């Protein structure tokens, strides 16, 4: 603790050598089960450290080892190499069984985020059953995003860092097949021409939005 | 004429069998779009090359079959059937230039797009779930280290708890907004409003009671409220620097005077 | 998992190379919640492995690094290098659930900000203890807003960026309304009591964003 204070007060001195910074980052990432942000690491390191560079070094060092340094959104974590999963039966946590509706809803949110409830319904062609969104929220895989700037300002859903961590994704941009889907135009929202029977969205959105908020967010 | 056309494309044996097979687990389907997607697979082509006309026939066969077997279909299945019948007629008949709205081809293209999009999302969902997953294929640190003796307590709450708390309050049965009998209450705002224009004339010390509004001096309840409000308003005006206030001794009359700005 | 069985039955084949065994030991020591014995490791590794030797290799590899392989009784564990303990303070934070009074108060402030104490009490229907507000202030989830321009000029409370951060919101306006809560299945479907004076005008809300006011603390 003394070292740290010293470094803050005597910031005229240089930051520790990069090898030392790498050790610090290594210790912090090892100690935490959750991903740690660069900002968080730097807040704990002596003044003048470059945690991002230290992590980059560390990541290379662990290539091919039994644990890996992985990126999760804005943060970093150490995770075991997936090919060694068979050793870990003891650690395996019971995976909660998700319904098909929940899995599809999750995928739609991930690929279309920020995504409104009406959009989910439009894509699936059925209304989102009570409890599906609830379950995904509770698992911490989705959260509320910014409201859509469309009439009624409906709430949106986006995926969380926990989602990325769980599925081993660096960012939502790394979702499998994202580029192909975009190239095929399957992520555009295309308004249905005239009256389509599957436009569960249209009307609902109007309703959900139109009245949803004025009482709460009086403008 | 349209009627004839319908009769003409009676379902083939194959379609009838396909429809029958679907009927078996109609409860297993998630709505008409799901059924359409399943039916489209029998065409064994890329979804982009799907024949929507043929698909419409297959779906109508499915609905007819359900009716024949006296299976109750949910309303949205029937809405879809009606719409597909309409779409079919649009696709079969030569376009009528006088007719409003989107063409049959446009509608068919959009339906194909919806099917392709739903299929894509299902594929992606499957790819997602098949990925290496935390806690199953790869693992986080298993051991939390107790390195320092410093323990800070932090309180946590989830967004869900926050929203549920709010919902709980807002829907509480016994909740009633607090309402007062306003008839005999003279508010401080009213008193302020009344006094502001008057104090400009109070060059000399004037008794506070002279500021009471008309009709509030006699009834004791009203008089009490008006006096309290006027007194509170006076204090407010003193605080703002518009007024001076004095009282010679306990229970003596309270007097007010305009304070001149320097 | 198949690999393992294969290795057990086909033990005529050689054990994996030592580098591979080292990876396995590394992953197990990392992921395990408790120190792991050699016997335990070998039971989980393919047949013919020498966990003790693999641990010895791993231990050497970590010499001078940010974490070390240490012996705990007759088992092994990965631990932070002692000189880096100062980085670990954050890991020993104790988490407690917020009391019901506190979370309700917080919810009201979030939905109605800027919000006076009297308003909170009116909505909750019970008085708000001083400790509750103090706790929320201390946690940095609420702060003082602009004074209300009503008689007595009562102080108001608003939520802070830390609050938004903790709950993964971009702004307090992204909180779902009652209607949306119900739609998401988070609320039993009973309509809220009719005309409730919800929320303070838009103007006030705008002002909440303003800077902390010096005159706030003039009493």
TrEMBL record, chains A, C:
Cited InterPro entries: ScpB_csome_segregation (IPR005234), WH-like_DNA-bd_sf (IPR036388), WH_DNA-bd_sf (IPR036390)
Phosphoprotein as UniProt keyword: no
Gene3D superfamilies attached to this UniProt entry: Winged helix-like DNA-binding domain superfamily/Winged helix DNA-binding domain (1.10.10.10)
Signal peptide interval: none
Keywords: Cell cycle, Cell division, Chromosome partition, Cytoplasm
GO biological process terms held by the UniProt record: cell division; chromosome separation
Source organism, top-level taxon: Bacteria
Protein name: Segregation and condensation protein B
Organism expressing this protein natively: Jhaorihella thermophila
Automatic annotation (TrEMBL), chain B:
Superkingdom as given in the UniProt entry: Bacteria
InterPro entries (alphabetical): ScpA
Pfam families xrefs: SMC_ScpA (PF02616)
Stored Gene3D superfamilies: 6.10.250.2410
PANTHER family from the UniProt entry: SEGREGATION AND CONDENSATION PROTEIN A
Protein's name according to its UniProt entry: Segregation and condensation protein A
Taxonomic lineage of the native organism: Bacteria, Pseudomonadati, Pseudomonadota, Alphaproteobacteria, Rhodobacterales
């Amino acid at each position: 603790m003394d070292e740290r204070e010293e470094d803050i007060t005597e910031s005229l001195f240089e930051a520790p050598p990069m090898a030392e910074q790498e050790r610090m980052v290594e210790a912090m990432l090892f100690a935490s089960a959750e991903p740690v942000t660069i900002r968080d690491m730097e807040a704990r390191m002596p003044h003048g450290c470059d945690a991002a560079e230290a992590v980059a070094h560390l990541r290379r060092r662990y290539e091919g080892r039994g644990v890996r340094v992985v990126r999760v959104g804005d943060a970093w974590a150490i995770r075991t190499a997936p090919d060694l999963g068979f050793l870990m039966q003891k650690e395996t946590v019971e995976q909660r069984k998700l319904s098909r509706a929940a899995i599809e809803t999750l995928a739609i949110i991930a690929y279309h985020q920020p995504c409104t409830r009406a959009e989910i319904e439009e894509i699936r062609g059925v209304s989102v059953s009570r409890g599906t969104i609830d379950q995904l929220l509770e698992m911490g895989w989705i959260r509320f995003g910014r409201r859509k700037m469309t009439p009624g300002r409906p709430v949106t859903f986006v995926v969380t860092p926990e989602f990325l961590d769980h599925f081993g994704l660096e960012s939502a941009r790394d979702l499998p097949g994202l580029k192909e889907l975009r190239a095929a135009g399957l992520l555009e929202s295309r308004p249905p021409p005239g009256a389509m029977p599957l436009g569960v969205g249209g009307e609902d959105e109007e309703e959900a939005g139109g009245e949803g908020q004025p009482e709460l967010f009086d403008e | 004429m349209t009627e004839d056309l319908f009769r003409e494309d009676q379902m083939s044996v194959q379609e009838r069998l396909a429809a029958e097979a679907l009927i078996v687990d109609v409860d297993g389907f998630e709505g008409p779009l799901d059924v359409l997607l399943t039916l489209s697979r029998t065409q064994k082509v890329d979804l982009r090359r799907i024949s929507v006309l043929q698909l419409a026939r297959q779906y109508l066969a499915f609905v007819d079959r359900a009716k024949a077997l006296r299976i109750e279909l949910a309303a949205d299945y029937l809405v879809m059937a009606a719409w597909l019948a309409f779409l079919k007629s649009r696709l079969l008949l030569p376009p009528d230039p006088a007719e409003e709205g989107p063409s049959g081809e446009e509608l068919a293209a959009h339906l194909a797009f919806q099917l392709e999009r739903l299929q894509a999302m299902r594929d992606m969902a499957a790819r997602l779930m098949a990925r290496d997953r935390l806690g199953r294929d790869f693992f986080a640190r298993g051991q939390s280290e107790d390195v320092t003796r410093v323990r800070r307590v932090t309180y946590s709450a989830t967004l869900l708890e926050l929203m549920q708390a709010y919902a709980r309050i807002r829907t509480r049965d016994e909740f009633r907004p607090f309402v007062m009998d306003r008839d005999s209450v003279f508010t401080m705002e009213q008193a302020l409003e009344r006094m502001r224009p008057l104090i400009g004339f109070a060059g000399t010390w004037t008794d506070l009671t002279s500021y009471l509004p008309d009709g509030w001096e006699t009834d004791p309840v009203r008089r009490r409220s008006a006096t309290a409000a006027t007194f509170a308003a006076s204090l407010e005006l003193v605080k703002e620097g518009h007024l001076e206030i004095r009282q010679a001794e306990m229970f003596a009359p309270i007097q007010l005077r305009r304070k001149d700005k320097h």
